[in-house]
Amino acid sequence: MSAVLEISGLQKTYRSRKRVRRALDGFDMVVEAGQVHGFLGPNGSGKTTTLRTLLGLIKPNGGRMSILGQEVPRHLPEVAGQVGAIVESPQFFGNFTARDTLSLLADAGGVRPERVMAVLELVGLRDRAKERVKTYSLGMKQRLAVASALLKEPKLLILDEPANGLDPGGIREMRTLMRDLAESGMTVVLSSHILGEIQLICDSVTIISAGRRVAAGSVSSVLAQHASTTVKVRLEPGVDMYAATELLRAAGAQVTLERDHFTVGNASNPAQITRILAERQVYVTELTPVAVDLESVFLELTGTAPVDGQNRQVDQSAPVPAAGGWGQ
């Protein structure tokens, strides 16, 4: 497969009187043709800055970017007609109907008029096409934004939070649409915080944290590289679960207490759990490995997992634990 999108060493720095902030710090990204690619990162990690820089809305301080084999932003006018994009919250004229809105965009972009109703059909707005946009819900406006990005039948579609405001049925419809577009030959880049959807829909992912790439590859390979050492533990009824978890924490275990069980997140040798507890006449009734998912990998790689008693701030990433585990 050939790369539709390539970013290498991208840098963007913001300066103020008080400090210098590196929004992008040598960021790399590659998206192959015909894929649905997930672009993931916590708030303030550099996702939107990357997309805005790629589309010529922000000037980078360094690095290289290319779309469809053309270096951008220098050759952006030559490839812009083959790129559809939504970045951040879309804005429309409230008194225009959806059909009027897309007709104006089609006329300005030299798109054939029949595409207007075709894309409204695709996103489920055909029967609401004559209603004013100001009467639309957030989810309907999001559908309209996706429709506008599809008008030009682009080779590369970039969507920033396309499921924002959608109900569960709408999220599933959007998932199906993205897969259908990829199967037709379009390349789709999705930026989203709905990690369960990303895991279901995407062929590959890039994860960014603090302006740097921390993971990239197929979804299956990223999950395989971060196989879970977390186990779920249940104890005999009536046992003081809090006291049991304190025993394990004193031995170095990373324990999360749930309502009727607890998990140990760094259990490279689960036998240690049963041994430590049995020495105090506390007996385990269940010891089950917890399957890794994209959300847990994301939280681990970006250092954004919740910590009891702490309120994590935007741009604040906790130190990621070193490789290995407790109980070895």
From TrEMBL:
Residues 5-235 form the ABC transporter domain. Keywords: ATP-binding, Nucleotide-binding, Transport. One of its GO terms (molecular function) is ATP binding. The keyword ATP-binding applies. Residues 308-328 are annotated as: Disordered. PANTHER family: ABC TRANSPORTER, ATP-BINDING PROTEIN. It comes from the Bacteria. This is ABC transporter ATP-binding protein. Belongs to the ABC transporter superfamily. Pfam families: ABC_tran. Transmembrane segments: none annotated. InterPro entries: AAA+_ATPase, ABC_transporter-like_ATP-bd, ABC_transporter-like_CS, P-loop_NTPase.
